[in-house]
Specification:
mainly alpha; 10 helices
């Protein structure tokens, strides 16, 4: 099978920086060497959007039969998964999460992750729309609906997200 190198990251940190569809697609290519099937893609997107942690998804993919057979040698993966698994242990997991500054799995943690994913997904969507947007016709500018100065202010405001 030919691996699509444009969807493969070189370190686990690169995968953890991605959100939503990009995270799922890149996770499949990097950890399994193939594109996501529709069922897996939709399942993991639903999980991410409801606040499930990226590390739990990575752990699930790597622990699957297919993941063990593919055995990705992604730098940093073993260390991150080792810490994640220790953070899930009873009693000492709390201390591990504090030591390594890892998210928990409380309702508030899941809500925050869901919000974070939604914000970055929205940011990506807005950036794509702005990149494809054309300058408004001169007649619209003269009618006062949009001015070049306002357009720059509006588009510049999204860069800070």
């Amino acid at each position: 099978m030919r691996i699509n190198k444009s969807y493969v990251v070189s370190h686990v940190d690169g995968l953890l920086r991605l959100y939503d569809v990009a995270f799922v697609e890149c996770g499949y290519w990097t950890l399994l060497g193939r594109a996501a099937d529709p069922e897996g893609r939709n399942g993991y997107l639903t999980a991410l959007r409801s606040g499930r942690s990226k590390l739990s998804i990575i752990d699930e993919i790597c622990s699957s039969q297919e993941g063990r057979n593919f055995s990705s040698d992604l730098p940093g993966l073993d260390k991150v998964l080792g810490r994640y698994r220790k953070s899930r242990l009873p009693v000492i997991g709390f201390f591990c999460r504090q030591l390594w500054s890892m998210d928990g799995n409380s309702a508030s943690d899941r809500k925050l992750r869901a919000i974070e994913n939604a914000v970055y997904s929205l940011k990506s969507s807005v950036e794509q729309r702005l990149a494809g947007a054309e300058t408004p016709p001169a007649s619209k500018v003269s009618e006062g609906t949009t001015s070049p100065e306002n357009a720059r202010t509006l588009t510049g405001g999204f860069a800070a997200l």
